[in-house]
Amino acid sequence: KIEGYDICAVTQLFTEPYMVQFLLQNTLGAWWLDLYPDSPLREEWVYYKDQVQHDFSSWPESPAELKILDPCCGSGHFLVGAFHMLLDMRRELGEETEDAIRGIVRDNLHGLEIDPRCIQIATFSIALEAWKAGFSPMESYLPVPNLACTGIPIRAEKEEWLRLAGGDGLLEGVLEQYYDLFKNADTLGSLIRMDSKQTLIDRATLTKKFEQVLRREREAGDPVAETFGETGHGVLKAAGLLAGRYDYVMTNVPYLSGGKQGEILKSFIQEHHSLGKNEIATAFLERCLSFCRPGGKISIVLPQNWLFLVSYKQFREHLLKNERWDLLARLGPKAFQTPMWDFNVLLLNISHTKPPAGHLLCGLDVSEERDAAAKARSLLDAEIICVGQAGQLENPDARISFEEGVRTTPLSTHAICMRGVVSGDSDKWIRRFWEISCNSFRWKFHQSTVIETEFFAGRERIIDWETSGSGMLRPGTENEAYGEPGVLISQMRVLPATFYTGELYDNNAAPIVPYDPSHLPALWCFCSSPDYHTAVRKIDQKLNVTNATLVKVPFDLPHWQKVAAEQYPH
Fold first, then answer.
1. Can you give the pLDDT at residue 447?
2. What pLDDT is recorded for position 225?
3. Which pLDDT belongs to residue 9?
């Protein structure tokens, strides 16, 4: 039993338990072990990494005082994971099982979700786990979980909505405030921002006043109270959780790029999350931080492309300067067993406080593993690398990298890499050289991609240049690569290389042309080696790498000159 509910049967839905366990054990578990280093729970938390630096000075010293939120709780998999960890902790302190469960549900766990069906599932998920853990529903009631739907829009006209206040001026002011905030709730969900000091009336008093007024209006037969009263209850509950500040925020964020966002969502994110506006996931990363108390922590699952894309440079710089990064795990593709497997995702723990001087960001990478099960196994003992967080700001475009040591100059110091021809219609403009009988000035040689590294390849094509490339080249730019020797990189997957000899080339192939032609042998030895692919993928895991990124890798010219002299002696 839950107050107001009768439970018959529930199906618990989990999404990749290994992600939940890894994140929770390295935040919630780390907090507990900071308080009780000899706790026997250490042996159960198999993903815990003791190399990570933590600061829990602002966290409470008792589980009873801890406030946890999942702002995108879905079916409750993070909440259920936290439930079991908290129950073990409270039992270890000697608390009776049923008392501990009541306390966890009543005081510790909070959840928000835009989909009301998910709130129902999450509510029953928590109830089911409580029953399985030893709570007796036949003898007592479980407190109603602190879960609320943020996706309930207010459909009433404003005048009708304000009638719910029943003439109470203070309550009317609050409802007017909520009307403006929740009118697009089904689009914005937990992105709705509320100042915790926004109202002069506390949540309990507000709810009590509202229920009293609503009861009076219903008894009087007011149709507005009958029609919009439940919406009012839902909005008040969601508003209370949205205005809260929490010690720990954990979630798997929604994914939706800026190009696919509707106008309401796009304009809201641009206004409130301008640095992370390219993807709703990064907007939610910022939103999760805003839910935290100073010194609180977040655990989050989200795409990893923001770690290296140029468009997120300011976003990375802001987070590196203002938030303390604790632990980052690159999972790469196929981390989910569902159709979401194509996403390159990561797991991230961040503390909502400025990083101290010398703070180390710890990370690990299991992106090469082939599926979710292999990634889960690899997380158990993958090598942890810890690097200075402040040093990440010195990387090209402040990209996140776990490489430290002697810093060499970037390849861009010694070479250029410019975009090629964008024909827009290959069938119209491009032929194979053996298809044209005469070699007229109309046709130009056109170099393209290669499947594997070869000295001379990708030279089967010619392009119709009768229009001198009108519409195919970036307006107002001269391509300094044309006519000069270099190394052409195919901009996909393993980045195979071939020599470039000055022809026109397409936009999927990127010639790297040295400023000094005498550096070409060293450049070839570097770009044709596995070291080059490794260096690029350390700063950019996107499938198709941009021209600018290809020359932002470190390049040790003297070393590669020596390699070239040994491989190709004159």
1. 86
2. 47
3. 30
- Which long-range CB contacts under 8 A does 422-429 form with residues at least 24 apart? 422/472, 422/473, 422/506, 422/507, 423/463, 423/472, 423/506, 424/471, 424/472, 428/464, 429/463, 429/464, 429/472
State how far the Cα of 175 lies from the Cα of 210, in Å rounded to an integer. Answer: 10
Cα gap 234→229, rounded to integer Å: 9
Q: What 3-state DSSP class applies to 366?
A: coil
**What does the chain come to in residues?**
570
Terminal Cα distance for the chain, rounded: 85
| Cross-strand partners of 301 | 252, 347
The DSSP call for residue 64 is G
pLDDT in tens, 200-255: 456 666 666 566 555 555 555 555 444 455 666 777 788 889 989 999 999 999 98
Task: State phi, psi for 178 to the nearest 5 degrees.
Answer: -70, -30
Checking DSSP bridges between strand 292-303 and strand 246-252, what pairing results, if any?
A: parallel
One-letter amino acid for residue 136 of the chain: S
Please say whether the beta carbons of 380 and 47 come within 8 A.
Answer: yes
Burial 330-341 (b: 16+ CB within 10 A, else e): bbbbbbbeeeee
Cα 278 from Cα 333, distance rounded (Å): 20
Residue type, 482: Y
List of E strands, 343-384: 345-351, 360-365
CA 390 to the chain's CA centroid = 21
* Cα 428 from Cα 506, distance rounded (Å): 14
- Give the DSSP H or E segment for 497: strand 497-500
Kindly tell me the burial class for residue 531, based on how many C-beta atoms sit within 10 Å of its own C-beta (0-12, 13-18, 19 or more): middle
